[in-house]
TrEMBL record:
<dbReference type="GO" id="GO:0035515">
    <property type="term" value="F:oxidative RNA demethylase activity"/>
</dbReference>
<dbReference type="GO" id="GO:0035513">
    <property type="term" value="P:oxidative RNA demethylation"/>
</dbReference>
<keyword id="KW-0560">Oxidoreductase</keyword>
<feature type="domain" description="Fe2OG dioxygenase">
    <location>
        <begin position="263"/>
        <end position="373"/>
    </location>
</feature>
<feature type="binding site">
    <location>
        <position position="281"/>
    </location>
    <ligand>
        <name>Fe cation</name>
    </ligand>
</feature>
<comment type="similarity">
    <text>Belongs to the alkB family.</text>
</comment>
<dbReference type="Pfam" id="PF13532">
    <property type="entry name" value="2OG-FeII_Oxy_2"/>
</dbReference>
<dbReference type="GO" id="GO:0005737">
    <property type="term" value="C:cytoplasm"/>
</dbReference>
<dbReference type="InterPro" id="IPR027450">
    <property type="entry name" value="AlkB-like"/>
</dbReference>
<keyword id="KW-0479">Metal-binding</keyword>
<keyword id="KW-0223">Dioxygenase</keyword>
<dbReference type="InterPro" id="IPR037151">
    <property type="entry name" value="AlkB-like_sf"/>
</dbReference>
<dbReference type="InterPro" id="IPR004574">
    <property type="entry name" value="Alkb"/>
</dbReference>
<feature type="binding site">
    <location>
        <position position="283"/>
    </location>
    <ligand>
        <name>Fe cation</name>
    </ligand>
</feature>
<dbReference type="GO" id="GO:0008198">
    <property type="term" value="F:ferrous iron binding"/>
</dbReference>
<dbReference type="GO" id="GO:0035516">
    <property type="term" value="F:broad specificity oxidative DNA demethylase activity"/>
</dbReference>
<feature type="binding site">
    <location>
        <position position="341"/>
    </location>
    <ligand>
        <name>Fe cation</name>
    </ligand>
</feature>
Amino acid sequence: MDDDGRIHLQSFLATIQDLSHDPSISSSKSDMHECTSLSLMKSLGSYREIKTSFDLKHPPNQTSNEWNKELAAFQPSDPLFQDSVDDHEDYLLPTSFGRKQKLTYPRKKVKTNHLFSAGHSFQTTPFSLILPRSIESKCKRSGKKQVEIKNSLGSSYLLRSGMVLLKNYLTLSNQVDIVNKCEKLGVGQGGFYQPGYQDGAKLRLQMMCFGRNWDPQTKYDEDCRHDGSKAPPIPDELILLVKNALQYSHSLINSEDELPMMSPDVCIVNFYATSGRLGLHQDRDESSDSLSRGLPVVSFSIGDSAEFLYDDKRDVENAAKILLESGDVLIFGGKSRHIFHGVKTINPNSAPLPLLKQTMLRAGRLNLTFRQF
């Protein structure tokens, strides 16, 4: 982590620790500032003391092993501790699923919340999409106007051959149902976890799969996930939404050859926190038959909006950029099936207010991508 990253983290931790002494907050565990619990404040405060002491004793380039030894006995009192620290540290995602950027300051693995098996880490404490917070007060403090969901279908765009964007295709009811289904399945066996590689690098998102398991290390090679769980089936309602979106898209293109139909048997569900991102990569782990036929990927976006990049080459500087908002459906198949694509940034406080009120979805973006293996 560079000096700016250290200053940013220490400033954040100082703010959290100051809040823990505020009588209006500490008077009751049920009285929370945003979504920050008292136990989380305590964990972050303790972390700050240990980290400050370490920095005073060691030079900036001290090895990560020394830092890990310093924290070996540290036991955070809140399961959200690691996510809160991760969101404010200067870590980068792999630039693609197959190519990782070296981390200069490896993330500490908290023993009480994570297990490590066969090169993969997963939470013993389930990750929940739901995080109660004061929606209206958050909007006022952010100074941003919250987005309302429109009842009618938005504009549709043919971005290039085989690539279609359906704006506001998912209704509020659709989005609420999807959040509720993902929450119910995400906290159970085979639910959300943070995927990673054998060398310890982790993607900066939470993931689970429907239909068939996939992860960046083993791809589709293993029927069971590293924790022994199998992927739950894709809910029938989601399959119907995918097929209807594909059929609607055919009204924008010349023929089905440009954008083939498909029957989804895999759904990868990713949740990006507001600091999450994903480097340019190709979705090319499906069967040779599926890839050669150009069977499309169908992507649902829910929650905070995201800047989405795509190009024929892995070129971040020159890649095309579109804004994917809550309710948007993006489809790419045919000649566009092998495009490089990624998420540049998540825009905080951009989720529709009615969605937040009905689901209490935590800050970030929920993304479901369907494909046929």
